[in-house]
Amino acid sequence: MIVSFDEIDKNCKIIDIRDNISFSEYNIKNSLNVPKIKLLSDPSLYINKDEIVYIVCDEGKSSKSTANILNKLGYKCYSIEGGIDSIKKQ
Questions:
Q1: Exposure of 44 by Cβ count < 10 A (0-12 exposed, 13-18 middle, 19+ buried)?
Q2: Taking the model in full, what pTM does it have?
Q3: 1-23 pLDDT tens trace
C-alpha cells in the first residue's frame, strides 16, 4: 500500500529505513530511524500490529518492499510514495 506524503496521518508512526548517515542529513520531523535490515530482523521491537505505520526510504522502492513484507506478517504499513527525495522537492 502506497500513500503520498500529503495523505499520511502525521499522528501515526513514521519509520525511516535509510542508514543513520542519510537520516541525520535529512529526515521527517518525529520519524524514527530504523535501518531496513534491523526492522525486518525483529519488527516487534519497533512496531505493533495494532498501529498504522508509514515507512520511508530514499525513493520509495525499498519502503514499498519493506511495507509489503511487514503487511504479510500482519502489520499495517504504508510506503510513502517517492520517499524522502519527493518530500525534499515540496
A1: exposed
A2: 0.95
A3: 899 999 998 889 999 999 999 99
